[in-house]
Specification:
Layout: H1 13-19, H2 22-40, H3 76-111, H4 116-129, H5 133-144, H6 148-174, H7 178-185, H8 190-226, H9 238-245, H10 254-281, H11 283-289
Helix pairs in contact: 2-3, 2-10, 3-4, 3-6, 3-8, 3-10, 4-6, 5-6, 6-8, 7-8, 8-9, 8-10, 9-10, 10-11
């Protein structure tokens, strides 16, 4: 067990390193702003997002409607708050599906490297990976109809081979370590070794990849909603807000500007956080930058 990945750090060292990472802290702040907005939207929004006010449609940003109103007179700031809830929920559940199915498949493939089990799992992943999330969503909605649930399924299916490949590649490098060989000699089976020795040592890598896939999931949800395959009215969605604004961008640019910035800043925050976590978990990068 002496060469097992991970070293004991001094108390408070991890926290000091985290606070010293500009990328991590900036990414965390941006992400938490939108997460907080999504949580607050469950109990309060400045205006009812389902209520139309045609008399005040296409109003520019003002003291009453901070981000202006859309073509139905709905408050854009309130819609972005609720839209954050939709985007985060879809992306979070979809990434969780990909992780909880893909990681066990990757561990199983690594444990049976070179065997028929490894071949079946990885060729199945290649088959799924050949279909982008949009195409999977089109096939699903052709049968069941467009909805946020079907968007979650489509994005989740697309994430499975991502985590399976990552897990297999990382696990293969650990199966040759001395502590794994010792576990095998002591009589431990592949499942127990994967659970007790392999998985704990690739958790950091999975967390970083999960953060990146989370940002891609938000982009995918926005893209699916933009083409009408995601959350359906009256549920607000950032992607559908952009779709509604495309014919009015010349005289009501605020309709596209604010949901576009919401997507940009959320994805930027998650990517910065992923980059910061990668630096935090990889001592070689820290040493190289120090």
């Amino acid at each position: 067990m002496a060469d097992q990945v991970g070293v004991t750090k001094k108390p408070g060292g991890w926290l000091r390193t985290s606070l010293g990472s500009r990328n991590l802290m900036l990414g965390l702040i941006l992400t938490m702003v939108f997460v907080a907005g999504a949580l607050v939207s469950f109990v309060w929004t400045p205006f009812d997002v389902t209520k139309m006010d045609i008399a005040h449609k296409l109003a520019t940003p003002n003291t009453t409607n901070w981000f202006g109103t859309d073509h139905f007179g709905r408050d854009i700031f309130s819609m972005i708050m609720v839209g954050a809830r939709t985007s985060i929920a879809v992306a979070l559940v979809a990434v969780s599906i990909g992780m909880f199915i893909g990681v066990p498949l990757g561990l199983a493939a690594a444990a049976r490297s070179g065997g028929w089990g490894d071949e079946i799992i990885m060729r199945g992943n290649d088959l799924v990976f050949a279909f982008p999330a949009l195409l999977i969503a089109i096939m699903i909605t052709a049968v069941f109809g467009p909805s946020a649930t079907n968007a979650i399924i489509a994005i989740g299916i697309f994430n499975i081979p991502v985590f399976a490949r990552l897990t297999r590649g990382a696990a293969l490098t650990l199966w040759t370590r001395d502590y794994v060989l010792s576990a095998r000699v002591s009589g431990k089976g592949a499942v127990r070794i994967s659970a007790e020795h392999i998985l704990p040592n690739i958790t950091n890598l999975l967390i970083v990849q999960g953060t990146i896939q989370f940002s891609l999931g938000i982009l995918a949800e926005a893209g699916l909603s933009y083409v009408g395959l995601g959350a359906q009215p009256p549920i607000p969605s950032w992607g559908r807000m952009l779709a509604d604004s495309q014919t009015m961008i010349s005289f009501a640019p605020h309709m596209a500007l604010f949901p576009g910035f919401a997507i940009l800043l959320t994805v930027l925050g998650l990517n910065l956080m992923g980059d910061g976590l990668r630096d935090l978990f990889d001592p070689r990068i820290r040493r190289g930058r120090g």
